Amino acid sequence: MIKIELNALISWFLKLVLFVVFILAIYYKEHLFAIYSLAALLITLLPFIISRNYHVNLPWFFDIIIIVPIFLDVFGQATRLYEKIWFYDIITHFLVTAMISIIAFTLVYTLSYIKVIRIKVGWLIFMTIMFSIAMGALWEIFEFIIDQIVGEQIMQDSLRDTMTDMISVVFGGSVAAILGSYYFLKMPKHKVKHIISPFKTLVGGEKEIIIKLDKKEIKRILKVKGKRLKSLKKAILIIEK
Q1: Taking phi first (over 0 means left), then psi (-120 to 50 degrees means alpha), and beta for anything else, what does residue 95 get?
Q2: Is 234 exposed, middle or buried (0-12, 13-18, 19+ CB in 10 A)?
Q3: Distance between CA atoms of residues 52 and 42, nearest Å
Q4: pTM surpassing 0.85?
Q5: How far apart (Å, rounded) are the C-alpha atoms in residues 139 and 123?
Q6: Could you tell me which of 203, 22, 179, 195 has the C-alpha nearest to residue 101?
Q7: Would 101 disulfide with which of 4, 29, 152, 173, CB 3.0-4.6 Å?
Q8: What Å distances lie between residue 43 and 37, 69, 92, 100, 159, CA to CA?
């Protein structure tokens, strides 16, 4: 029987819902929203694509922090929760910004960890917050352009709405940067290494060569005589630069 982890089950269920939303958008001829939901679905598939093409398994929670904010945004627009719940927009902007900031923070921390760049924690926090503000500003510009193309205020209601979004962006980026720095500084090194290991592979700091060997080959290579190799089925050689 195939064992499926709960987080993977939740992730693929939410992706399935996004796909259904995409199909319904096409059926009801909401072409702009169909393109938007399809783009969102493709973004949620990035961890799977990276794992498949680069043989890099990101920690499970990265998949969750990517899929949940995007799902809430698309689902909120499809069911008009943005109109029904006044603080729904604040929640989604906070979560999306936190997601982007966590990924950016981890990537830059990894570059610092493998000594590709040198940056102090304080500057890393500051740059993460600035990055989140920049991404938030670009998103607001995108919303403004969409409204101008459509000729209606479907993305932005008012200046108050825009500024509320930006405040949520700053708050989300700040929380992600501060908690990220606290985690990487206070957590045991083996846990930190487990998180940044996939990012090290992506940026070229670590290469993994997986060699599948049977028991006879392993015994011959290791030159083991008179000893049993019970559960060893493959050897993983990790070469670090």
Answers
A1: alpha
A2: exposed
A3: 14
A4: no
A5: 24
A6: 179
A7: 173
A8: 10, 11, 16, 12, 29
